Amino acid sequence: MKKHLNLRSMAAQAVEQVVEKGQSLSNVLPAMQQKVADKDKALLQELCFGVLRTLSQLEWMIQQLMERPMTGKQRTVHYLIMVGFYQLLHTRIPPHAALAETVEGAVVIKRPQLKGLINGVLRQFQRRQDELLAEFAQSDLRFLHPSWLVKRIKNAYPQQWETILEANNQRPPMWLRVNRNHHTRDAWLDLLTEAGLTGFPHPDYPDAVRLETPAPVHALPGFDEGWVTVQDASAQGCVTYLLPENGEQIIDLCCAPGGKTTHILEVAPQANVMAVDVDEKRLSRVYDNLKRLGMKASVKQGDGRYPQQWCGEQQFDRILLDAPCSATGVIRRHPDIKWLRRDRDIAELAQLQAEILNATWSHLKPGGTLVYATCSILPEENQQQIAAFLARTPDAVLSETGTPEEPGRQNLPGAEDGDGFFYAKLIKK
Predict the structure, then answer these.
(1) 19, 296, 327, 414: least CB-packed within 10 angstroms?
(2) Residue among 111, 81, 112 nearest 99 (CA)
(3) Residue 396's beta-bridge partner residues?
């Protein structure tokens, strides 16, 4: 029974690591999930993701109900109370169970003397919930994003900004990529139907299928055999623009965890693909993905700003540069991004992107294709980045994606669509 009681305190500790210590949830959560029973993993994830999605609301509620914030070693209790609020507001967990288990969490984090305080705050919240929610709905925090990011999105999308913020606060759809070497998309959709699941094809990306409701991977026909891969539809758009062909020399730069590397090899199994990423730890995921799909690529650890270090003077037919970015297009998948990013990061990222673009362009053969992509929705990293590159690079020509005045194609996150994503296809004269 003890392990189950731990879930609330574990969620509180995970959120604290993200908000106070700047850790990424995708680094913190897997280690914690290993400690809990399989049946509890989904709830632990829901509590962590949910609290981070609605953090500004929960923070505001605590300020209304407590005279002094919890500080120092008591700080975990602050996040434990948030976990309690989240359950009462946003889950179907019966209130008495949410209360009991959250209060019990104080014992696990060695703060049993604060059980009465936690219980009191949660019960007060239950009594005043409707009035607090009505008041919060009038506040500037209601968009559940930091103010600097609201301002940037508002400036970039004066007509659509509220829709974008709303989409960021939703749970993401589950998108799959059908491996065309095993089945056509339609044939695999028939297998999915036989398995009792429903999927919908994407109108633009030929391998993409959206599940009506997310499902565990082992429920998907042929997942272990490599028939299908979990990958967002917008991410699949990269290879639709890249158009890889057999026999070509291709770089997938910033490749981890390997979704685009394997997509290139599904489309062009005889291509020579070099998959490069700066983060050595994340390259293990690339190897895992290649292994599951029975594919081979030359996997290298390297910095995109210094290609000579990992490819010498080699020239390539096609380069896919999925550039390091603010990830503001995938907030619904990674709600911690809202609290980890800072306003000043955007200019630094734009500078890094420009350096990588310049460095890799010299390794593209004349007549070759470079696809620049980001999972960002901010113009500084996207349209403005490509406009500046075209202005300083006389042998670069924009193809299929926008116009020289408005370069690139920008996808925005949508409930039944892919994540926020940007693409620009460039041909070397």
Answers:
(1) 296
(2) 81
(3) 428
The tens digit of pLDDT for each residue in 296-348 reads 999 999 999 999 999 999 999 999 999 999 999 999 999 999 999 999 999 99
Q: Which tokens hold the place of 255? A: 């490749």
Residue type present at position 356: I
Q: Is 206 annotated as a binding residue?
A: no
Per-residue confidence band for 144, with pLDDT thresholds at 50, 70 and 90: very high
Which residue is listed with tokens 């030929």?
206
Q: Are residues 58 and 85 in contact, defined by beta-carbon separation less than 8 angstroms? A: yes
Query: In this structure, how many other beta carbons lie within 10 angstroms of the beta carbon of residue 194?
Result: 9
Task: State the catalytic residues.
Answer: 375
Is residue 322 marked as binding? yes
DSSP state at residue 173: P
Q: Does the annotation place 106 within a ligand binding site? A: no
Residue 135, Ramachandran bin (φ over 0: left; ψ between -120 and 50: alpha; else beta): alpha
> What gap in Å lies between CA 18 and CA 340, rounded to an integer?
7
Please, what are the domains in the chain? 7-144 (1.10.940.10), 232-428 (3.40.50.150)
How far is it, in rounded angstroms, from Cα 100 to Cα 142?
28
How far apart, in Å, are the Cα atoms of 104 and each of 3, 6, 198? 12, 8, 40
The H helix count followed by the E strand count for the chain is 17, 12
E strand or H helix at 166, and its extent?
Answer: helix 161-168
Residue type, 200: F
- Residue 258 annotated as lining a ligand binding site: yes
Helices 55-65 and 38-53, packing angle to 10 deg: 70
Q: What is the pLDDT of residue 1?
A: 37
pTM of whole model > 0.90?
Answer: yes
> Which H or E run includes 389?
helix 383-392
